[in-house]
Specification:
Length: 287
């Protein structure tokens, strides 16, 4: 359906207060799920990011890349192994993770943003000693799966100050020169806290937090930390949504004002969340 010029103008005017609200504020986007593998959805996300930057927001993109890592391991004849949902990462796998996330996925996203008229630069946690890590749950024998010890946001802040869109891959390091695979949700949450971001947006394959996981109409539009913890204890928030919600909680505790979990399967979901009154997914606040 063709939109009239009058309707286009009305849409822009309606978005103006929200554009003003987020002007010069930092927005961290954790990018994953179908929106990373579906080309149409990927295009929509890149367009959203460029528009948000163009209207004055400081946008940081933190990405995952699990399927791409699994595909590359398959190509070299190496089987993917998981424990408690985490990829077992020996030294060879850690090298593949670095190559795929920092070398391919990150730079492909930079290229896409630049092709849409944005100005992006790719980073990983090795750049500027940004993400210092140590082994996560060493008793499980996960190898070079890392948890963050320290995060240094200066490289990202410098790029934002120069008008760039930083694209960040979750790869950590330690003083012995080891490379670690860092969960992208965790990296995004801690980086958003360090940047004192206005909001963190997690782009997922879920509508948000549901009271009934089988009923999309049971979406919970707003949650605070206390209620989110209660829903986890009651089993309403379960499975793979638990670590995502826990990262949302940690981001709020670290100083992020609002956190959103949105459905990346919906084209232009970022714009719908930030630039409309109703929003799209679940918004988390501290109180």
């Amino acid at each position: 359906m063709e939109m009239s010029n009058a309707l286009r103008a009305e849409v822009l005017v309606h978005a103006l207060p929200l554009i003003q609200k987020y002007n010069k504020k930092t927005v961290v986007i954790k990018y994953g799920g179908s929106a990373m593998v579906n080309e149409t959805l990927k295009d929509a996300v890149m367009e959203d990011i460029c528009l948000l930057r163009q209207v004055g927001m400081n946008v940081v993109l933190v990405h995952g890349g699990g399927p791409e890592i699994s595909e590359m391991l398959k190509k070299i004849g190496k089987k993917s192994e998981f424990k408690n949902g985490l990829r077992v990462t020996d030294r060879e796998t850690a090298e593949i993770v670095q190559m795929v996330l920092a070398g391919k996925v990150c730079k492909d996203l930079v290229k896409l943003i630049n092709n849409k008229g944005g100005r992006a630069i790719g980073l990983c946690g090795l750049d500027g000693k940004m993400m210092e890590a140590r082994p996560k749950n060493p008793e499980l024998g996960l190898g070079y799966v890392g948890e963050l010890v320290a995060i240094r946001s200066q490289p990202v802040e410098d790029l934002l100050a120069c008008g760039y869109i930083p694209v960040v891959a979750g790869i950590g390091y330690d003083d012995e020169g080891n490379v670690y695979n860092i969960n992208a949700d965790t990296a995004a949450a801690e980086l958003a806290g360090k940047l004192s971001a206005e909001c963190l947006i997690s782009v997922t394959d879920e509508s948000g937090v549901l009271m009934d996981k089988d009923d999309p109409s049971s979406l919970i539009s707003k949650l605070n930390i206390r209620t989110a913890k209660r829903l986890i204890a009651e089993g309403v928030i379960a499975g793979g949504m638990i670590p995502k919600v826990e990262c949302c909680i940690e981001a709020l505790k670290a100083g992020v004002k609002k956190v959103f979990v949105i459905d990346g399967r919906v084209p232009h979901s970022l714009l719908m969340e930030l630039l409309t009154d109703e929003g799209l997914g679940t918004m988390f606040t501290k109180n």
